[in-house]
Amino acid sequence: MAKRKFKYIYGPVSSWRLGRSLGIDVICRGKDRVCSFDCIYCQAGKTRILSDRRKVFAPTREIIEEIKTLPPLKFDYITFSGAGEPTLAKNLGEIIKEIRKIRKAKIAVLTNSSIIDRKDVQRDLRLADFVIAKLDAHNHSLFTKINKPVKKIKFDNIVKGLKEFKSRYKGKFALQIMFVKENKRYAREIAHLACGIKPDEIQINTPLRPCEVTPLPKKELDKIEGFFKGITYVSVYKTGRKACCMT
Prior knowledge:
The protein is α/β, with parallel strands linked by helices.
């Protein structure tokens, strides 16, 4: 029997943060990649359609049908990620609810945080077991330099949204910080802001997958870890190892 090609799901893949992860791409536009950011380090390449508008990109029914036809597989999470920003999918919450009916696996969402200040987005994200949100800067100037967002997206609104979401969310909440040469000198300020949001975990990252940006060496990332005090973190160079921040 020929191996079936899936349009919306991929993997399972090995993830340093999620273990064995079955991915779902709810945007799925191929070369016409849709995202609210055009990050300088994105492994998927340049964003073709820069937008913060929520709409249905992939029908819920088609995604669920693909999941139903999966062979028996072992994985730790079903993860909403892919080449675009998953919270742009207006039916994200609906898809999560439908998956709950047919699968017992935990559900994770990787978000760039761009529209997390919106109530409908927060409502959808609260349905997941684990939300990993991006925070690569400590002010609007650095934010625009690294993440290159849709112009009307404001950094202060993102920070406000992260705090609001964390205050009501019952699942596990992590902040992922991608350190590159453009923001490494501000690691102390970023750490201060991130710790103030009080996530359950901070993920210290640098782009190890092929992209247009050179990753920071382990020695530099080890130094950055010292700025995260009193909170649990994981580091991409120390895969799977959690530790309390150094005092």
